[in-house]
Amino acid sequence: MTETPILSVRNLKISVPTDEGRAQILDHVDFDLAHGQVLGIAGESGCGKSTLMKTILGILPRQAVVDDGQILFEGDDLLSMSVPERRKRIRGGGISFIPQDPFLAFNPVFKVGKQLTEVLRWNGLPGEEPGAALTASFRRKAREQLVELLRAVQVPDAENALDRYPHQFSGGQRQRLLIAAALASKPKLILADEPTTALDVTTQMQILKILRDLMQENDASMLFVTHDFGVIAQICDRVSVMYSGQTIETGPTASIIDAPLHPYTQRLIGCHPEKSEGIAGIPGQVPSPLAPPPGCRFGPRCDSFREKCALRRPPLNFMDGEDHRVACVLREKEGAQ
Ligand SMILES: Nc1ncnc2c1ncn2[C@@H]1O[C@H](COP(=O)(O)OP(=O)(O)OP(=O)(O)O)[C@@H](O)[C@H]1O
Ligand SMILES: [Mg+2]
Question: Which residue from 20, 50, 227 has its CB within 8 A of the most atoms of ligand 1, so it is best to mutate?
């Protein structure tokens, strides 16, 4: 357990000034992703999952402010690097991104091959510098690499697929193309933002399996954002649960699903369609980042709320003898019943 994690996020705080005041979008986000593992980031809509991914990639809107924290990629803090240094570290086999929506990610007027070649040029062919000139030799190498990857992600007729337009593919096939594009530079770390939410369940399962297999073949690690615990059970080794911009529980998938400790995680898992409650099972709403409640942000929606919950933000405490952390006063030793 002494190996440096591929990614460690420490006490990350991000805010955005708005016309109505300062929105505290991430507040004390904290987790580790070990080499070769998949870490799921779970939470309801609006809890800050995409903002977290954008912060790691360095593509936050210009007005966003990093108030505190570190993002350690192989032990080096991306937030303390200059923009060119950071780009160099991310591109060319460092970190790549699979976006959420396979319908929006492609430009409809260009052939898929042209668009995927551009992604490869940006990220770099494996073993080559990013940003190479679009020479005939680069095009040929990129094409060979892409055809091989399209076969790996099981796009039918991979040889000819690159000469088609995006609308000639189904949603599931387009998602496979996006996975191929993200894996083409053989990244060490893959960030996937709800990559299968737009797809039907069967396609979703096939794609998750392909993604997991390719990740293992390439010795990569993955941060996988989703609100679906069914997907988490299938693909993630560990889970980090976020609520209103804060990490509130983190641990191995089996212990989070079988024995969730935070009342929010308990309710969220109860929301899975295979269980009894619907998504409306948690009364109330995620608070606005403009005016989050004091102390535990889940307090106003929590059945176990007590006065001290509103006094301070509970720290993420390790549970005895377990690789499982939770931020809840009910689980603090002096506060435990
Ligand atoms: N540029 C911005 N300015 C102001 N508020 C923002 C900005 N970007 C995001 N937010 C707010 O931050 C919160 C988190 O947004 P984010 O998109 O990260 O959530 P999410 O967990 O990815 O949600 P979803 O599951 O719907 O994709 C939301 O309340 C959102 O309205
Ligand atoms: Mg999102």
Answer: 50
Residue 271 pLDDT: 60
Domain map (residue ranges) of the chain:
7-56+189-335
Q: What is the CATH number of domain 7-56+189-335?
A: 3.40.50.300
| Ion ligand 2, residue ranges at CB < 5 A | 50
Ligand 2 centroid to Cα of residue 222, in Å, is 17
Structure confidence at residue 295 (pLDDT): 92
| pLDDT value at 125 more than 80 | no
Query: Both ends of the chain: CA-CA distance in Å?
Result: 32
Say what the pTM is: 0.90
SS3 251: strand
- Whether the pLDDT of residue 102 is over 70: the answer is no
Local structure of 154: helix, strand or coil: coil
Show the tokens assigned to 261: 């400790």
CA-based nearest residue to 223, from 243, 242, 202, 201: 242
